[in-house]
Amino acid sequence: MTKKHHTQGSVQNTPKATFDIPESVDIHAHNEDEISPYSASPCSSPSMDNDNQPKLERQPSRKESWPVILLFAEELVNKPHTITLLVILFALMLYAAFQVSSPLKSATESNIKLGVFTACVPLLIYGCLQFRDGIFVRPHPVFWRFVMGTSLLYLMFLVFLLMQNADDARKIISYLDPVHSGRPLVDRTYAEHCEFTFKNVYESTDIFVIAHSAGWFAKGVMLRDRSILWIGSVLFELLEQTFKHMLLNFEECWWDSWLLDVFFCNWIGIELGLWFCKYLGAHEYHWTRTSSNRDQSLVQRIIILFSPKHFDSFHWHIFQSRFRFVAATYIVIFTMTADLNAFFLKTVLWVDVE
Question: What is the model's pTM?
């Protein structure tokens, strides 16, 4: 018999006990929620069967110890209910159809609005059931599938407007929203008092100052590259100077364009967006349990609830190759075109955003 020498003495090798574990047991499982039903409690000792062999006692899993209401809620939320939703949709369609035939719903305008609404409902329900999940899966994938469905409906509406002339498009917009559309816009100019004084700067600030910062915060979260963001910020101000003869609200004082917009509002939005990306990318969150998030504030938990499952940082390296330069240029042109379209569409279609 061999001996192992230690500093204080020697210890003889003893035979190891063997345990009969079924093949279906995953001995590498580490997740609390996936504990094997054959796993033993750390405080209990293995019992002996008839053959004097140690045998692991079956312990109840974590889900088996849950209350009935939690098990019902998990089944209700995490499993699809296609037939149930189909029955509900069919009942709503029948209700809407009989409401149309009633004397109270005889107006053509109400019938058309109700028909357009009910035509959108099946697509949204189909999207909630069948659309593919993206990186956003919390608080529930169905919520983001619904957002995707509404985005698809909005895209279809824009394509429909593309096939109309300006007068017909204005009539359609005024028909859907008669309060904020249907009348020519009275655009405000920002180039009336261009003396660089505190009074003029204060009077030129409005809700669009927050909109500037919020927009570039969103671009910072999407693009995640400071150089591309600053190129886009400066380029958009140059585009405003180019098209100010077409859109009156593009006329601004020099300090409004470069100091207030570029070096204040846009800078705050860009830096906050990049900080938000760094904040999400530098922390490891445990999504499966709420107990691990108790040390976080309510605002942090709400942000985590609606943030992506994984968050990657971007390193564009614009000048590393011709392909990267062309790709970055395309992204800048695409974002600038989207921003300009918002201003031109509200002017052409007479949509009052204030």
Answer: 0.60
